[in-house]
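Below is just one:
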Amino acid sequence: MIGFVGSHTSSEEDAPVRLRQHPAIPPRHIAEQHSSGPLNASMWGHIPQPFEGYASKCGPTPEEGYPKTAPIADIIKNWNPDAGKWTPSHMYESVCRFDYATDLDKAIAYRDAEVPFQLYNVPSMNAVARAWSDPAHLRRKLGATTKYKCEASNPGGEANFGANHFMYTNGRSSRNPPIKNVQLSWDDWLRKIDEAVNTSVLEPNSRFYFRFSASSPSDARSGWLFKELPFFQPKPNVFFKDPRAQRGIHCRFGMEGIVAEAHWDGSRNTIAQFYGRRRYVLVDPDHTCDMYLLAKNHPSGRHSKVDWSNPDSWEKFPDFPTMPAHEVVQRPGDFLYLPTYYLHYIVSIDTNYQCNTRSGRDDRQLKVVNKCTPGFEKQASPPRRGKKPWPSRGKF
């Protein structure tokens, strides 16, 4: 059965510097405490509190300097990405968190200002999160034996920081990539979670992302996502600045301990968390150069070549330790809005499910991103935009 099994919390003083082994804990079903209303976040484990002075005021519009940042060295020292289920008492969180029932106007204003924020207590989202906590529901939707193109960890490639660290690769000129594609069914993936309990994260092919996508409601295999997730239908609402430029719905289910390496995406991104906890370390595109990104023609282009979880390796990247960053944890029922090019590094605290959708782009920071990503320096203009956007205001 699927679910979260406990969490260890402690003080900053005994935070692990870099744990090389942390076996995953098998998921089990979580009995719902309420059939309606907001989700009970406490059942999903500890969420660190913001350090004093880092919580934002979250007024009607973003305050100057929002969101507050800290040097990445401080963030990693406080909470190493390879710490497994361990969570500190506090974190460097400054992203505003809005209640859909009372703060929708604020959420729209922050979206239109192209800054990150979280939104929660969306009724249709809460219903999906409850439904997806039951593996039988997802089995009916996905099929018990239907195979999907998923990803397995693989300690190969010239940029690889451990078998639990997933570095996207496009496959070009990469004979031994840091990840490899595998075919898994829903039941296959559940078995992989069970098998990982007694398997080190150092073991190749021991950690897996379960993935599936739908480009439109007519998608033969996964078109059901558009009906299942009504908030991601391309209609005017808080989740879409440009609904006609939507690029499908993409779901990625992670196993405990997986790290997705830092990168940027060329469009706005809204991320929905249905199950478990997922941590995001975020960097404004203005600081792209501090990330030391791999070149455009690299199989893992647009990704940071720095091993964030290993401070001993940072000597080769002198500007990285002082890079301004901030962090946030997604829990079931949460949405996270990421503006165009906003750099993100993702850690699966638990077994977790998320889906995202993209819609259009804002190119005010295109110049700095191109300048700091080798191979993009001479790109004079962004790719062709989508159609004329619909009105940006609206509920669903």
Summary: The domain at 9-372 is CATH 2.60.120.10 (Jelly Rolls). The helical segments are 72-78, 104-112, 123-132, 135-142, 186-196, 224-228, 366-372.
